[in-house]
Design brief:
By secondary structure, the chain is mostly helical. The protein folds into two domains: 121 residues, 3-Layer(aba) Sandwich (Rossmann fold), CATH 3.40.50.1010; 33 residues, no CATH class. Helix content is 60%, strand content 7%. The strands form two sheets. It has a three-stranded parallel sheet. A two-stranded parallel sheet has the order 2-3. Helix 7 links the parallel strand 4 and strand 5. The longest helix has 13 residues.
């Protein structure tokens, strides 16, 4: 019997991986990922209304994979998460992760990551997903270098270029 990781994703990594057309890495690394309804609403529904191509990419990917869109009732959200300075998607992502006893939360936002760690949750962001994919052989060094350069170059991916550069040096030894 194989154990499947319980992984919940916030909006940031979904958006970044959709923009890079790398959503398949989530399946390769984690099997399946739980998506909170509020995150789906924000990234897919509102994104498609605004004409964002990455929203359409994510929509098609989720339709193909059949990954669950999770609902959580407001009363199920732990009090500490209700009190935290998080947006709705971050709050619901962390609440679902706590309720499910998740192994990993995918989240880019700094405050959300701090709250996740304080709640005892393991967290990985967009760059961490790419590095894990490289370390597990899902992508090679050349691909990682290309994706990191693309992230640093793009104005519609909000990751600080200095962080990208530091990780490139640390991971690839360049």
């Amino acid at each position: 019997m194989t154990y499947e990781l319980r992984v919940v994703s916030d909006a940031g990594p979904l958006i970044v991986l959709a923009k890079l057309n790398l959503l398949h890495l989530l399946g390769a690394l984690y099997g399946r990922v739980q998506i909170p309804r509020s995150v789906y609403q924000e990234v897919v529904i509102e994104g498609m209304r605004a004409g964002h191509e990455d929203a359409r990419t994510l929509y098609l990917f989720l339709e193909q994979t059949g990954w669950p869109i999770q609902d959580i009732a407001p009363e199920e959200i732990p009090a500490d998460l209700r009190a935290a300075r998080l947006d709705r998607g971050e709050r619901e992502t962390l609440a679902i992760a706590v309720v499910l006893g998740s192994d990993l939360v995918l989240m880019d936002e700094t405050v959300g990551r701090e709250v996740a760690r304080a709640s005892g949750l393991a967290v990985r962001g967009s760059l961490g997903i790419l590095i894990q994919a490289y370390r597990q052989g899902a992508i090679d060094a050349g691909q990682l270098r290309l994706y990191l350069a693309e992230i640093a170059r793009r104005q519609d991916i909000w990751v600080h270029p200095a962080l990208v550069e530091r990780l490139r040096r640390d991971v690839l030894g360049e």
